[in-house]
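task queued by scheduler; priority normal; single chain, no ligands, no partner chains; default sampling; output format set to C-alpha cells
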Amino acid sequence: MVSHIAALAIIAGLALAGWAPWLALAAIIILTARAAWGLSPWRRSVRAQVVGTQELGAGLLTVALTAIGYIFSL
C-alpha cells in the first residue's frame, strides 16, 4: 500500500505540473482501491486464473485511461 500511495502522490504532482493527464491519476486511484480490497480481510478467495485475468484487466484499464488522457488532454 505504501507504493500505491507514493504512486498517487507522484502522479498527482505530475498532473499538477501538466506533465501527466488527470486520467492517469484516476487509473492509479482505481489500482490503489483494488490493492486495498485485495489486502483486506473481506476479500473472497479466488482461483489464480481469476486473479490473472483481473490483473490483465486492471493493466489494460490503466493504459487505456492514460492514453485517452494524453490524446484528449484530460
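post-processing summary
- Residues 2-71 form one domain.
- Residues 49 and 55 are 10 Å apart (CA to CA).
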